[in-house]
Amino acid sequence: MAKLNNTQVFCRIVELGTFTAVAREMNLSAMMISKYMAQLEESLGVALLNRTTRQLSMTEAGKIYYYRSKQLLDDFSELEEYTSQLGLQVKGTLKISAPIDFGGLYMVPAIDAYQRAYPDVKILMTLHNSQVNLSEGSFDLSILVTDTLDLGVVARKIAQTRLCTYASPDYIAEHGEPQTIAELSSHRCLHYMDTPHKDYWVFNDDGEEVKIKANWHFASNNGRALCQAAALGMGITQAPELSVMNYLEQGKLMEILPAFRIPSLEIYATYLQRRFLPAKLATFVDFLIKYFAENNRLTK
């Protein structure tokens, strides 16, 4: 256990940068931290750190030992958490990231239902449209609405939605309904910012993906604002169907150019591959899959 403790100290020195910072974090003296490092290097028979009056840096052996030790310590921590939950109530804090529209419209009811089943799990949800790097550790789970996935994450499909083009009946009555993609250039467009397709709208033209740069007059990173603008007759918007369902049901928006609609976008719960998946994460993902299957507006 002494070597495990010394290895933990070494990893924190690398991460925090100084012996003093680690001593402060562990409520120990800097001399004690130095002692732990000396014990570790002596037991290994190799120097792990280069020490100067100005800074610390890892030796080549230190780099190898750190990256392998970090993985082992993470595995050990996950194993402890996993084992402690066996036979006990699922608990802890789950940090999730979700797109603004999907999170605001659909995740809150899902979280409410989940917490009724697992009341000891706290959930911290951050809403934004930027894709997060899960390896940085700020989030346990990221919800993505996408047609492409990065490598290195586990992605489990929880739902799907169509990316369609919409306008209000009033707008169509005044400006006419475009029948081809090319005709959009003469219409006022309402553009959704911060999507994987950047400044472009995407269509399917006889099996071929076509991207056009919309002639937008109003843009936002909030789908609700764009839906409201489209319902007011301000222009044409392209958005996931999940964002406009209520407007469609109320007759305030209608789909246009349906023949050029691209295949459905998948909605994924993504997380890093782990040897021991924490119960709070495993139960939440399983719950989302079941929840959206039963509330099937987003599964067809």
From TrEMBL:
Keyword Glycoprotein (UniProt): no
Matching Pfam families: HTH_1 (PF00126), LysR_substrate (PF03466)
HTH lysR-type domain span: 8-59
PROSITE patterns documented for this protein: HTH_LYSR
Residues spanning the membrane: none
Gene Ontology molecular function: any one: sequence-specific DNA binding
InterPro entries with a match to the protein in the record: LysR-type_TF_proteobact-type, LysR_HTH_N, LysR_subst-bd, WH-like_DNA-bd_sf, WH_DNA-bd_sf
Source organism superkingdom: Bacteria
One BP annotation, GO: DNA-templated transcription
Keyword Plastid: no
Keywords on record: DNA-binding, Transcription, Transcription regulation
Family note: Belongs to the LysR transcriptional regulatory family.
Entry-linked PANTHER family: HTH-TYPE TRANSCRIPTIONAL ACTIVATOR TTDR-RELATED (PTHR30537:SF5), HTH-TYPE TRANSCRIPTIONAL REGULATOR (PTHR30537)
Protein name as catalogued: Transcriptional regulator, LysR family
